[in-house]
Specification:
The complex is a heterodimer of chains A (217) and B (163).
Chain A: H1 9-21, H2 31-55, E1 80-82, E2 86-90, E3 96-100, H3 108-117, E4 122-126, E5 128-131, H4 138-144, E6 145-148, E7 154-155, E8 170-173, E9 182-189, E10 194-202, E11 207-210
Parallel strand pairs in A: 4-9
Antiparallel strand pairs in A: 1-2, 2-3, 3-8, 5-11, 6-7, 6-8, 9-10
Chain B: H1 3-27, H2 30-46, H3 48-51, H4 57-74, H5 97-107, H6 110-122, H7 126-133, H8 137-162
Helix pairs in contact in B: 1-2, 1-4, 1-6, 2-4, 5-8, 6-8, 7-8
Classes of the chains: A alpha+beta (217), B mainly alpha (163).
Chain lengths: 217, 163
């Protein structure tokens, strides 16, 4: 009988571990780079969500005020605010519907001011991803921002996996549910003219990274 | 760096090598394994609130890395089984026994390699491996037993030939 007939399972596994452990492997990359990759991944995911909801803009049939390119066209708190790039509609239940008009020049400061006039604290950027760590709880974000069909049905966004947004869906914001100390964050991606809703950040605690989502030229 | 970032960075530094070796033992290619593990850690950071409370966070990373690889392969029209020659013996690593064992490992079915990798690099018990792979504990024991038996045969054969 060969001596190896008597090798126990643990001895075999230990031998395998020794052999595999002797193979040189690369050291870990920088942890910051891995975290940045994760943030970019989140952003890319949201870009996927945002693309469909933005293309829905043209499908929203609403009564529009005069269209102006540089500044919101309506008085504070009054019905509809429209520019060439976006439209904000105050709904009877206190929520606000936001849509973008694809293909128009987008000025983040104009949208930010328009949201503020409707009582919505927000940070709006172009090609910049901002987030708080730790993040604002999803439950809070879910209460504030949603993507809905014309009949009011909520499109699920806060579950794992990729989602297909129906072309007639719109962004709906509920200002009354925004927790104190937080604000909405939107990132407009120039490459595909997409407004990404990354629902809430802590007003006094967030960081931003510049750049387009991975996978875009 | 926030406390959460520091916590993740500490986990990442301590877990990179065992996770990478476990994935490498399954996929056989070091570069592919590095890519998959890096992606898995990036996803771990995205879901850190969940992963940090996971009973076996390293296993979560390995499982995610292997699923990443599976997704990558599923996108290709032709999925090829891992060939024995994919597990190469790097320069500087002894031939003979080492090469024979790597070859034997490469010949094992994927599930057997996964079970062995999780056992020897993450030191997981049978029940935890079963939960991570979504299979019964008895199935884990069967895979482990068959995999170890195959490796033992290779070790025996190699030693006999050397004598």
């Amino acid at each position: 009988m060969n001596v190896h007939d008597e090798m126990s399972d643990s001895e075999v596994l230990r031998t395998a571990a020794d052999v595999l452990s002797a193979i040189p492997v690369a050291g870990p990359p920088d942890a910051e780079a891995v975290m940045a990759r994760g943030r970019a991944r989140r952003r890319h995911h949201r870009a996927t969500l945002g693309l469909a909801s933005t293309t829905a803009a043209a499908a929203v049939a609403i009564s529009l005020a005069a269209a102006l390119g540089g500044s919101p066209a309506s008085a504070p708190g009054v019905g509809t605010i429209q520019t060439t790039a976006f439209t904000l509609v105050q709904n009877a239940n206190g929520t606000v519907t936001l849509t973008l008009t694809q293909g128009q020049m987008f000025d983040p400061s104009v949208l930010q001011r328009a949201l503020a006039r409707d009582g919505i604290p927000a940070l709006v950027k172009i090609d910049t991803f901002c987030a708080s760590y730790p993040a604002v709880p999803w439950a809070d974000a879910r209460a504030v921002w949603s993507v809905r069909l014309p009949d009011g049905t909520r499109v699920p966004l806060f579950t794992p996996g990729e989602h297909t947004i129906p072309p007639d869906a719109v962004n709906v914001i509920n200002p009354a549910t925004i927790p104190a100390g937080t604000e909405l964050f939107f990132d407009y991606v120039n490459h595909d003219q997409t407004l990404i809703g990354d629902p809430l950040i802590y007003t006094n605690s967030y960081s931003c990274i510049k750049g387009s989502p991975p996978g875009t030229p | 760096m926030s406390n959460e970032q520091a916590e993740f960075a500490e986990f990442f530094q301590a877990s990179w090598e065992p996770c990478l070796r476990a994935v490498m033992a399954v996929v056989g290619r070091s570069q592919l394994a590095e890519d998959q593990v890096a992606e898995a850690f990036a996803r771990a950071w995205v879901s850190w609130q969940k992963v940090r409370r996971h009973p076996a966070p390293r296993a979560w990373v390995v499982r995610t890395a292997l699923n990443t690889g599976a997704s990558w392969w599923r996108k290709r029209s032709r999925e090829l089984p891992l060939a024995a020659h994919d597990l190469t013996t790097p320069d500087g690593l002894g031939g003979g026994l080492d090469a024979a064992l790597l070859t034997a490992l490469g010949r094992l079915p994927t599930r057997q390699r996964e079970v062995i990798a999780l056992r020897i690099f993450l030191d997981l018990d049978t029940d935890t491996i079963a939960r991570q792979l979504g299979i019964e504990a008895g199935t884990v024991r069967t895979h482990l037993s068959r995999g170890v038996a195959a490796l033992r045969r290779e070790l025996m054969t190699n030693t006999t030939e050397a004598e």
